[in-house]
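Appendix B. One record, verbatim.
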Amino acid sequence: FMWAEESDRTVNQKTQVKTIDKCINFVMFCSLITGEYPNFSESITMLGELKTDYIMRGIFDLPRAPIRNRVRFFKLAKKIIKEAHERISGVIFEGGICVVLFKEDVRPYNEKIFDAMCQKDINGNRIEPLPGVFVADLNNKDFRKIILNYAKQTINLGVDALHFDCVPEASGIIPPSTYQGIPDYSGWKDLCAKVRNYARSKGKDILITANGIVPAVDFQTCQLKIEPSLFKQRIVVDFVANKEKSQEYLGRDVPIVYFIDWGGQEGGMYCFSHWSLSEQRAFIQQAYNTCRKNKAHFAFPLYGGNTFIAEKPIYDAKKFKTYKTIIELATKKEN
């Protein structure tokens, strides 16, 4: 395989960040793979105003950026992470990696190797939820090498945490529309161990989480699913079941953070972005209160969106005028 070159072999070893159990305000600030950001200095000011403890998906899938732009994007990401650490005391900055498979991930392309990395439906066909995007198999060692390489590059940028998207799917839980498999998290556990070992070799402890309740993580993150209709605002989450499942996997209680998913044309941010301002504000308030009632955290949506649906982010709290509601909740004295 032709791996993407690492941008730098150093990490931010001196940054003092909070421990995950001390984090109260989680903020979703999701970048695009294209490296497009809003005015980040202004955004850091907003993140500071929100008393942000944890920036979720501050960079996402940068190792998959086009080669012609990769060096520039990596320099930008390092600058952003450094500025966030300098201006927001103790903030944890998270990078994200999508655990799916693109043909571009295998260079030079080898059909046999690629096919072995893909999960299959009940008819033996590759599962392709989006054009050119395939559900991969984390129990395939070659695929794990790809994701580990991407994780190393992201760690080298100076992040404090890594979010791995689509881990349950890559471990055998396929969306019901295709084929319901039985999860096997052995490959995921192996990946986590290697990621932590690499980070420690660079003098850094790294937090690991994933999208969904899974083993081997430091805390859990879950989608706060919205009824798939533009006209309903019902939260579809079983808080008790998620907590029990997390305890079963980890043998202890850890924080669980719920967020409005950036992806998908049904539910999630696509749905949320089509509501009226009053509906959006009401839902943020509802989500915050519901999570607190269930002793969980709600990640305030600040910026981002699905890059497969739109070339630019489909949500910006300032432009959507939901920022006022978010800052009121984030700065409550009860926090």
